[in-house]
Write a structure and sequence with these properties.
Strand content: 15-25%
Number of helices: 5
Structural class: alpha/beta
Radius of gyration: 14 Å
Distance between the termini: 8 Å
Length: 156
């Protein structure tokens, strides 16, 4: 369950960032506060390289930037909510498609071992964001605790 690795302190209810990479850095600071051993440069490089391979904007309004980082000992998750939205690249490189606007970012750094953890966390996020009311209701939350409570209420 996502709630096993997530706390209200891991959620930014109003991201200051307006650009994708700024948002990655803002959420990374949340992870570093909880895990001071994270190498910021390595983590940013992992996230940006993964994003450059293929957009992590997987659902309307939702992105899940993630990667394996050698300086992290245990999976870390940070969630950012942007009411204005942040532009991401489309998953498919189609000249006619518009860039998706993302309002909710689940940023994840995985430890090098434990592929099972990677799959479980991604599956848990997929289950959450697949629920029809998820985006609307999380955007209505006004505190990190409220967002956390909402997320945990949806866990199966």
């Amino acid at each position: 369950m996502l709630s096993a690795i997530l706390n209200p302190s891991d959620i930014i209810i109003r991201l200051d960032s307006t650009e994708k990479e700024e948002a990655f850095a803002e959420l990374l600071e949340v992870m570093v506060a909880k895990n001071p051993g994270i190498n910021r440069n390595e983590a940013m490089s992992v996230l940006i390289n993964r994003e450059n391979k293929m957009s992590t904007a997987i659902f309307p309004s939702i992105a899940v930037p993630h990667g394996v980082c050698s300086s992290i000992k245990k999976t870390a998750v940070a969630i950012g909510i942007s009411h204005k939205g942040i532009e991401f690249e489309p998953v498919e490189s189609d000249k006619n498609s518009t860039n998706p606007i993302v309002n909710i970012i689940f940023e994840i750094l995985f430890e090098q071992e434990g592929t099972g953890t990677h799959l479980h966390v991604l599956r848990d996020i997929l289950q959450l964001v697949s629920q029809p009311e998820f985006v609307t209701k999380i955007l209505q939350t006004s505190t990190a605790q409220e967002a956390y409570d909402f997320i945990t209420s949806l866990e199966l």
